[in-house]
């Protein structure tokens, strides 16, 4: 059964974050808050954990469209080809924030994603998520947790999330109520930005 760890966004406890990071380092799966909906994530370097997430989502790992949650833009060069000045300025203006940017991947992508030409990058404006990634030392691979309810697309109450996911994951972080609108997804891998999904992030940045 998963651990249920309360962390306050205005002052994330170092010790509580360290417990979450230890689980990630040991190959565990973590549900954590972002600036949009709650996400399900694992250490980007752990193949077994990546396979567990793909299995839960019912997709083949190499075909899965997971996002990489980064601490800041300095993580970009790890997995993304060099971007032009206009793209970088746009990223700097929008992030941290409720956006997922699709960018051209480079040769350093983890072996599970080698066949992918693009990668989704997220830097959420949420101190808990950013602190987890900072302490871990590398990005986490993430996907939104959806609700089967036809009315509510995303569960926002961490206690209900724990009830539903406690036997599938290793930690559920209670960071308060989440949002029920996903991130705005913008594809920057071509010549012009393409809006894939309009979500919480305003399109005025374009």
Can you walk through the features of this model?
With 206 residues, the chain is α/β, with parallel strands linked by helices. The protein has a single domain, classed as Alpha-Beta Complex (DHBP synthase). The protein is built from six helices and ten strands; from the N terminus they run βαββαβααββαβαβββ. It has a ten-stranded mixed β-sheet with strand order 1-8-2-3-7-4-6-5-9-10, sandwiched between helices. Helix 1 (14-25) packs across helix 5. The radius of gyration is 16 Å and the shape is globular. This is Translation factor SUA5.
Q: What are the SSEs and their pairings?
A:
Blueprint: E1 3-6, H1 14-25, E2 30-32, E3 39-43, H2 47-57, E4 67-69, H3 76-79, H4 85-94, E5 99-104, E6 118-122, H5 127-136, E7 140-144, H6 158-165, E8 171-174, E9 184-187, E10 194-197
Parallel strand pairs: 1-8, 2-8, 4-6, 5-9
Antiparallel strand pairs: 2-3, 3-7, 4-7, 5-6, 9-10
Helix pairs in contact: 1-5
GO molecular function: double-stranded RNA binding
Domain YrdC-like: 14-201
Organism: Flavobacterium fluvii
Number of domains: 1
What CATH architecture label applies?
Answer: Alpha-Beta Complex
Q: Class, according to the CATH hierarchy?
A: Alpha Beta
Question: Which fold name is given in CATH as the topology?
Answer: DHBP synthase
Spatial strand sequence of the major β-sheet: 1-8-2-3-7-4-6-5-9-10
* Helical residues, percent: 25-40%
Main sheet attributes: strand count, strand direction, barrel closure: 10 strands, mixed
* Proportion of residues in extended strands: 15-25%
- CATH superfamily assignment? DHBP synthase
Low-confidence segments, given as residue ranges, are none
Mean pLDDT metric: 93
Give the termini distance in whole angstroms. Answer: 44 Å
What shape does the CA trace take? globular
How many strand elements?
10
User: Structural class of the helix and strand makeup?
Assistant: alpha/beta
Radius of gyration: 16 Å
InterPro entries: DHBP_synth_RibB-like_a/b_dom, Sua5-like_dom, SUA5_domain
Domain YrdC-like: 14-201
Pfam families: Sua5_yciO_yrdC
GO molecular function: double-stranded RNA binding
């Amino acid at each position: 059964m998963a651990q249920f760890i309360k962390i306050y966004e205005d002052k994330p406890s170092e010790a509580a974050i360290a417990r979450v990071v230890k689980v990630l380092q040991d190959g565990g799966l973590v549900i954590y808050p972002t600036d949009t909906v709650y996400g399900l994530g694992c250490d980007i370097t752990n193949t077994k954990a990546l396979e567990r997430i793909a299995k839960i989502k019912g997709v083949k790992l190499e075909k899965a469209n997971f996002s990489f949650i980064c601490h800041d833009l300095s993580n970009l060069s790890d997995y993304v080809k060099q971007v032009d000045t206009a793209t970088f300025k746009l990223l700097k203006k929008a992030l941290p924030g409720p956006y997922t940017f699709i960018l051209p991947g480079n040769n350093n992508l983890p072996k599970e994603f080698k066949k992918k030409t693009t990668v989704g990058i997220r830097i959420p404006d949420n101190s808990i998520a950013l602190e987890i990634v900072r302490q871990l030392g590398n990005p986490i691979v993430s996907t939104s947790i959806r609700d089967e309810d036809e009315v509510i697309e995303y569960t926002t109450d961490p206690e209900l999330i724990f009830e539903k996911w406690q036997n599938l994951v290793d930690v559920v972080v209670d960071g308060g109520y989440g949002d029920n609108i996903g991130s705005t997804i913008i594809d920057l891998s071509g010549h012009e930005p393409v809006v894939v999904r309009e979500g919480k992030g305003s399109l005025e940045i374009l």
